[in-house]
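Continuing from the previous page...

OK, I double-checked the sequence for Paired domain-containing protein against my notes and this is the correct one:
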Amino acid sequence: MVHLTRQLRERIIVWRHEQNKTLRVISELAGCGISTVFEVLRLYTGTVINPNARPRGRPRTLDMQDMNFVRSVIEGEPAIYLDELRDQVYNRLHSTCSLSA
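Thanks. Re-ran it with the corrected sequence; updated structure tokens here:
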């Protein structure tokens, strides 16, 4: 299913249950497929967030504070090599990072 914002999921519920719009019209308004609209409506149980869903992806290695540190290093040294940046991250945060994306 395409990632939709919470607000858009709420709008889909309103369009269907309060304004009685068709799935096709809702999919055009939301900019997604009919199957995505159907899935949002199927999961709707009073909340637009699936309580059984697992978090997507793997846990992040660096939090926002760590990312701010990385950003400040790059702004201070725009020509820094990745291995040097990795070493600074490890020395400061004691966190290992891969050089691959």
